[in-house]
Every structure is written in C-alpha cells, then in structure tokens.
Specification:
Udp-n-acetylmuramoylalanyl-d-glutamate--2,6- Diaminopimelate Ligase, Chain: A, domain 1, Diverse_CBS-Domain, CBS domain, alpha+beta, Arc Repressor Mutant, subunit A, transcription, Thioestr_dom, CBS-domain, transcription regulation
Length: 435
C-alpha cells in the first residue's frame, strides 16, 4: 500500500497543468497533517512537477524532459526577473522558444513575434495585445501595468502577461544568462540517467535465507546485492565476502552490512565516481526520498558513462572547461603543456586566480596520466606553492612529472613557469579510475 507521501505525489500528478495548490488544501483533501503535505510538495518541487512562484503560489507544471532542459518555462522567467503575473497564470508551465526585444516599430516587432515566444517590451498596450494574438507571452519592463482587457485576453489564451521593475536590456541579459546556465546543467550526467531500474535489478529481502543469495548469484553472476525490508526500503548490502563459509539457513539480515551508502537519481555522476573510488565500492543502491529502492548503479555503469561523456560536444563552458580548452601540448615535448592567461582566469586584481592555478595543475597531471594509459584521476591531496603572481595575458608552461604510479594510486610533481621563471609548484596525490 502506498504511503501518505506517495499518495500526495500521485494526487499532485493527477492535477491539471497550471492548477494552483497549497499545503492547507492538500492536507484537507487527503486528510493528512500539514507537515506531511508540506514535505510532499517540496519533494514534488524537487522532482520538477510543481513550481513555487513568489506572489503567485505553488503551481502544477509540466515535467520537463532532459533533452529539452535548455528551454525555460515562463514560471522560471518570473523567478529570474523577480516579476509578478498580471494575467494568464494558467500558461506559466509553458516553455519559451525564443524572446524578442520590443525596441522597434510595431510592424517590425510583430515580424519576429510568433507562437511560443516572449515579447519583452515597455508600457505599449497595443504591442501587448498583438503579441497575445500571435500566441506569444509578454514581459512588461520598467514596473508598468497593462489594461484590464489585456489581462482578460491573457487569461482566455492561457498566455502569461508578466511585469518586472528591471529595464528591457537588463531583463534580456538575465534571461540569456539563465539559458546559458541551463545549457551547462543539461550536460551534467546524473545517476538517474545511467542506473539500472528496480524492475531489472537483483536484490534480497532482509528476512530471506542466505540460500536466496546463491540463487541470485547463479541467475545473474553478480556477487553484491542491496537488501530491503518489507516496505522495500534499503537497509543493507550483502557481498560474497559476507556469505563465505556461512550456513545457507542464516537470515540475510544477520550477515548484511547495515546502513549502506545510498544515492538518489539527482546525484551527479562525478560524485558517484569519486565515492566509488574513495570507498572502494563496486555497486551502490539508488533510492527515492523515502529510501525505497529504485535501482542500482555499478562501477561499470559509471566508467561507461564517463567515457561516453568525454566524447560528447560541449555546449556551455564552466571555468574547468575554459582551463581544459586553454591547455595545449608543447610542440617540442608532449609531456609539457602551455596555457594563455585570459581575463576569465583572473581575480579582481588582474592576476591568475588560485582556483584556476590549481585547475591547470590538475588538468596537466591528468593528461599526463592518460598518456601513460593509467586512466583518469580523482585528486586526494594537492599541495600548492604560489611562488609569484601571474599577470593577465601571460603564457605559462606547465611541467608535470610522475613520481610514483601504481595500479590505483599516483603521485606527481607539477611545476609552472612564466617564461623561464618558476611561478608555482605543486605536489599532487590521486587515486586512479581505470578505463
């Protein structure tokens, strides 16, 4: 039987897109406490099926697919520009395909305004009306209002008319930045993208006899399984080491490792990879907010996804991406790397930031290890000596040297030069992820 938390989530999913919900309303409708209703609504917001908007409330929205994640909903636009909804609240869940700045003649403006777009304009009531008739939403800048007839038309067409106190070009810059941030987020791989679902996973119940482990081992050839209780909540892990030379009639709960590490589908691939290396784990259960088993993710799943990720084109750039793209092998020595210090790499004083400094060292060391065919690394410790400041537009030479490299561990010395002068030095210790 579904828990109260799950019943609330199912109820929210059954509501129409655009339906406004509240803690008190949910508590009354499903006869639960307001605390239980509040926690379920917050979980629904984390899952992307509702959105809480200031001065509007919590609204049921359409769950976005990952391949369409770079598009913003109008509800998200409201949050970005700190705005308010004047009309057409039922259309807040819709996504905008593009935005148009209304700083031109009306006829020219309408040539660019189409269904699914967002017109950013001041207090030009005629433009508001024409945009709605074309199927576009409207964002009014400068804190202006609009006519009641426009608000009524927006309600009828379920297209939001919104207002913000920012000026037109500030709003355009804010939305552009949000879309760019979404592009970067879109590229982040999560456990939910790669794990093996519950219905295709192997697991044991805590009350099972050990004999069940041997049955699963014969079926799957795996040796590690999550252990769940009667409500299918993860309570342990059991491996071949736990069952060695044990009587097959012993209950699994007597031999399992209790309180195992569990991840959720929103956990990033990078975090799981680091944890698996750090803890020496081969398989991790994936659970929901109530700790109920959703599936498993294995070391092989993670390695395969990491390799696939490296082959994908980059759409948005983080600081680490900028560092990686700026680092090139020296022409006369493939084990030496060069980088040019760009404005994005500097601090407020115009010198190379400490974060970028360490990122350059780590990236150079990682590339050298890849050339040795040792695999990728997870940094365990990095001791850096910043000997001299590095100015903007400097050309750096980075020389990593492997001091020790075993099967799972590496120790490296990294030196950074500006011209012929050493400006930085680091000692890097890392664990290796075999490819």
């Amino acid at each position: 039987m579904a828990t109260k938390h799950e019943q609330i989530l199912q109820h929210i999913l059954s509501l129409e897109i655009g339906h406004k919900i509240s803690v008190r309303q949910i508590a009354k409708a499903l006869n639960v406490s307001e605390g239980t209703a509040y926690r379920a609504i917050k979980d629904a917001e984390n899952q992307g099926i509702v959105s809480t908007i200031e001065r509007v409330g919590t609204v049921r929205i359409e769950e976005k697919k990952k391949d369409n994640f770079e598009r913003l909903t109008f509800a998200e636009v409201i949050k970005i520009v700190d705005g308010q909804v004047l009309g057409g609240r039922a259309g807040l869940h819709k996504t905008l395909s593009k935005f148009v700045i209304g700083a031109m003649q009306l006829n020219a403006m309408m040539r660019y305004t189409e269904a699914g777009s967002l017109l950013i304009v001041g207090n030009r009531v005629e433009a508001h009306e024409l945009a709605l008739q074309e199927g576009a939403a409207v964002l009014i800048t400068g804190g202006f209002d609009t006519d009641d007839s426009i608000k009524q038309l927006a309600d009828e067409m379920q297209l939001p008319v919104m207002s913000t106190s920012y000026d037109t070009f500030t709003v355009a810059a804010m939305i552009n930045r949000a879309i760019y941030d979404q592009l970067i987020k879109k590229e982040i791989v999560f456990v939910g993208d790669i794990y093996t679902p519950y219905d295709r996973s192997y697991y044991l119940y805590s009350k099972d006899k050990l004999e069940r482990w041997y049955e699963l081992n014969e079926q799957s050839a795996h040796s590690r399984y999550p252990v769940v209780d009667a409500k299918e909540r993860v309570v342990g892990m059991i491996t071949a080491r736990d069952v060695l030379d044990k009587n097959k009639d012993i209950p699994v709960e007597k031999l399992m490792t209790k309180n195992p590490i569990v991840v959720q589908d929103k956990t990033s691939l990078a975090y799981v990879a680091h944890m698996m290396v750090w803890e020496g784990i081969e398989l991790v259960p994936v659970a929901d907010a109530s700790n109920r088993l959703k599936g498993v993710v294995s070391r092989q799943d993670v390695l395969k996804a990491l390799q696939e990720r490296q082959r994908q084109p980059q759409m948005g750039q983080t600081i680490d991406d900028i560092v990686a793209s700026s680092l090139v092998s020296a022409e006369d020595d493939q084990n030496t790397f060069q980088a040019h210090v760009t404005p994005q790499m500097t601090n407020q004083l115009g010198t190379l930031s400490n974060g970028v400094y360490t990122a350059l060292m780590t990236e150079a060391g990682s590339r050298l290890l890849r050339d040795y065919k040792k695999g990728d690394l997870v940094v365990e410790n990095l001791t850096v000596y910043f000997l001299k400041p590095v100015q903007i537009d400097s050309n750096l030479t980075i020389k990593p040297e492997v001091l020790e490299a075993g099967r799972i561990y590496a120790k490296m010395d990294v030196e950074v030069f500006n011209g012929k002068k050493m400006v930085g030095k680091g000692l890097l210790m890392a664990q290796l992820i075999d490819r």
